[in-house]
Amino acid sequence: MTDPQLSKPEIDFPQGPAPTDLQIEDIVVGEGAEAQPGANVEVHYVGVEYDTGEEFDSSWNRGQTIEFPLQGLIAGWQEGIPGMRVGGRRKLTIPPALAYGEAGAGHRLSGKTLIFVIDLLGVS
């Protein structure tokens, strides 16, 4: 098995209707420190739109990880990352209410269900 932190994840095009609740799926379970609510996290991630499969953001494309406090992120990340362990890779499918709000909320991703694959590299 390859180390998840060495390669950008591929996200398969989803089947069926978008879920209305946050979906959390561990692809790789890490063995390091556990992320707590409100922690600072260092991650690599890819985000795609559920309906189109179109990638809208990726730290991999910028060639560097990103570090930030969970409380500054969308609710889907605030709820979906705690409990994850360093070294893990997790897929979050996030409905609009836990992402950028319903359609017309003013963000280009408002009204969209989003899929993120996140590699947790560090917590503090």
Automatic annotation (TrEMBL):
<dbReference type="InterPro" id="IPR001179">
    <property type="entry name" value="PPIase_FKBP_dom"/>
</dbReference>
<keyword id="KW-0413">Isomerase</keyword>
<keyword id="KW-0697">Rotamase</keyword>
<dbReference type="InterPro" id="IPR046357">
    <property type="entry name" value="PPIase_dom_sf"/>
</dbReference>
<feature type="domain" description="PPIase FKBP-type">
    <location>
        <begin position="38"/>
        <end position="124"/>
    </location>
</feature>
<dbReference type="GO" id="GO:0003755">
    <property type="term" value="F:peptidyl-prolyl cis-trans isomerase activity"/>
</dbReference>
<comment type="similarity">
    <text>Belongs to the FKBP-type PPIase family.</text>
</comment>
<dbReference type="Pfam" id="PF00254">
    <property type="entry name" value="FKBP_C"/>
</dbReference>
<protein>
    <recommendedName>
        <fullName>Peptidyl-prolyl cis-trans isomerase</fullName>
        <ecNumber>5.2.1.8</ecNumber>
    </recommendedName>
</protein>
